[in-house]
Amino acid sequence: MKQEYCTPTQHPKWFGLAVQALVILSQEDKSIACPSIELAKYLQSEPSLLRRILSVLAKEGFIGTREGRDGGYHLRKPAESIQLVDVYDVFRSGSRLSFGITETAGTHPLGKCMKSTLEDITQEMDDSIRGVLSKYTIADLANQLEAKL
């Protein structure tokens, strides 16, 4: 597997893996911690990458950790209370898409005007994404998954 060498805010893949890990943890027995190696195998992800993602989720209070032989991760909040927009906000600061779009504008007068216009458009895009994600929780995704399996 190819290793990722970036921060959580630099890679859009992190949001998808974080959401999937939270869905899996929502379906686990709360008294049993799920090891990162098991989550990584299930998600077909590099374990060290997933541990970095889980570390961010733990720091933000979405999940708890247990050390030791029976260690691993568990949801700290009810799945019904974790909106996808909350997870998105944790991983999105400095969106690569928005940065990439606005950075294409040059420093000449037209470029400066375009940069301002592109910033407005990318802000609207981000607001739209956040609006959609605020409609769903981890529990919603877990229920959809159960219905499909």
TrEMBL record:
Q: Which Gene3D superfamilies match?
A: Winged helix-like DNA-binding domain superfamily/Winged helix DNA-binding domain
Tell me which Pfam families the record gives. Answer: Rrf2 (PF02082)
The Gene Ontology terms for molecular function here are: DNA-binding transcription factor activity
InterPro entries registered for this protein in UniProt: Tscrpt_reg_Rrf2 (IPR000944), WH-like_DNA-bd_sf (IPR036388), WH_DNA-bd_sf (IPR036390)
One Gene Ontology CC term in the entry: cytosol
Q: What is this protein called?
A: HTH-type transcriptional repressor NsrR
Q: Which organism is it from?
A: Paenibacillus polymyxa (Bacillus polymyxa)
